[in-house]
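# step 3/5: fold
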Amino acid sequence: MDDGTVLFYHGRGRVYVNRLERQCVGLARENKFTYRVQTGARHSRLCATDTITVIERTGRGLNCDLGMFEPISREQADILLGGHAVTSVPVEVPPEVPPEQRAPEARAFEEAPAPTVAPP
């Protein structure tokens, strides 16, 4: 949806909206994330204390804290999405590429000095 809101579709037509604790830069642009459910509890489930990780084209992106889960109807979800349905599908997280194996132009960008601003 955007950098601060995620919809989770659960079985039997249940939908939950989660408004993240903070804006998750890159989430809307990439439109993909992963998460790991904490185990050890009686029932393993995603909750407000968990995080999501944005999946960038080059690997893993930012980790972002989830907020509270609020149940909503499918109709409300459609309104939030502007009437567009979204289907989530599992994706494989690309492995982290070591710097020495990255394309030369990517290495040049990463190694370039930060721009400086001259005082007025």
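# step 4/5: annotate
The helical segments are 27-30, 74-80, 104-111.
# step 5/5: archive (pending)
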